[in-house]
Specification:
Pfam families: DUF4177. It comes from Pseudomonas cannabina pv. alisalensis. There is one protein chain. The chain has one domain. Helix content is 16%, strand content 55%. The protein is built from two helices and five strands. The chain has a three-stranded antiparallel beta sheet, covered by helices on one side. Strands 2-3 form a two-stranded antiparallel ribbon.
Length: 110
């Protein structure tokens, strides 16, 4: 029987930003659009996967992690609200084989 050990790591998903205003009133806000190109070109994301691979870990699953996001506004004096889920990143699950059991360690077959 083969035994496995498991680990996981979280990789955040960046979002595009938009800048508005001028001079000292300038502000940068996050949009609800993920920056896929920024995520894929981030060397840290690939470094995490490569490091786990070099250490013998096998990627077995990826889980998207979401958070609730709401927008509340006032349009023509009528209140409105919108709620939706956006991804904050991905949880990568890895496994690797530990030392296999010898025939003396194996439980008896019935």
């Amino acid at each position: 029987m083969t035994l496995f050990e498991y680990t996981q790591t979280f990789v955040p998903l960046p979002y595009k930003t938009v800048t508005s205003g001028v001079l000292m009133f300038k502000s940068t806000d996050e949009t609800s659009e993920p920056d896929i190109q920024g995520y894929l070109s981030n060397p840290e994301t690939l470094a995490i996967l490569n490091r786990h691979g070099r250490e013998g870990w096998e990627l077995v699953s990826v889980q998207q992690i979401n958070r609730g996001h709401e927008q509340i506004g006032n349009q023509n004096a009528q209140a409105w609200a919108v709620g939706y889920a956006i991804s904050t990143g991905f949880l990568f699950f890895f496994k690797r084989c530990t030392a296999p059991l010898t025939s003396l360690d194996k439980p008896p077959q019935t």
